[in-house]
Specification:
Elements (H helix, E strand, L loop, with lengths): L2 E6 L7 H15 L3 E6 L17 H12 L2 E7 L7 H8 L3 H4 L3 E8 L5 H13 L3 E2 L4 E4 L14 H25 L1
Parallel strand pairs: 1-2, 1-3, 3-4, 4-5, 4-6
Length: 181
């Protein structure tokens, strides 16, 4: 069974990033994947410092989830053209051990039309920890950030785009996972 870790990189209680992540989780579970959901709002991490050895329990959960995953989804709101500070802080704790050879899908939910700047920055981080960027990404913005009571994007084209992107991503994860083993 393919294991996917979803990192929800928002630090806001009712974040559309979290709604998007929960929708991604449901689609992946329906496709037969096992999902490790790492929500940085409910799993806060201490501020990263390379000078301090950190034995935080939340950090152990976070790193173990990534270590177990075959593929990773990084989801963020976009603040001032960049990923959220909580996601960047969490990623500063990671490295090759968590990402090397794993396919990574980047996703954003932004108040503007699209969150391209944050996605490009996430892809740069992924390259630097030897992850494999999925060439597709998910970016929802503006009125496309509305979700139904069932947790799906209200916009049909957004739902279709998410489904297409996740199918592509899962196929990539399965292909690269089989090569790695």
């Amino acid at each position: 069974m393919t294991k996917i870790a979803i990192i929800c990189g928002s630090n806001r209680k009712q974040a559309t990033t979290a709604q998007l992540c929960r929708h991604l989780e449901q689609v992946l579970v329906n496709k037969g994947c096992q999902v490790i959901f790492l929500d940085l709002y409910s799993l806060p991490l201490p501020l990263y410092s390379p000078d301090v050895e950190c034995d935080d329990a939340n950090l152990a959960i976070f790193k173990n989830g990534l270590n177990e995953a075959d593929g990773i989804i990084l989801a963020t709101p976009e603040y001032h053209g960049a990923p959220s500070g909580v996601l960047k802080n969490a990623l500063d704790y990671t490295g090759f051990a968590q990402f090397d050879g794993k396919v990574v899908l980047s996703a954003s939910s932004t108040g503007g039309p699209v969150g391209v700047s944050s996605l490009q920055q996430l892809q740069t981080i992924v390259r630097n920890v030897h992850g494999i960027n999925c060439p597709e990404w998910i970016s929802i913005g503006g009125e496309n950030r509305i979700f139904t009571p069932e947790g799906e994007p209200a916009n049909q084209k957004t739902r279709e785009r998410v489904l297409h992107t996740l199918q592509y991503f899962v196929k990539m994860v399965e292909t690269f996972s089989s090569i790695k083993q």
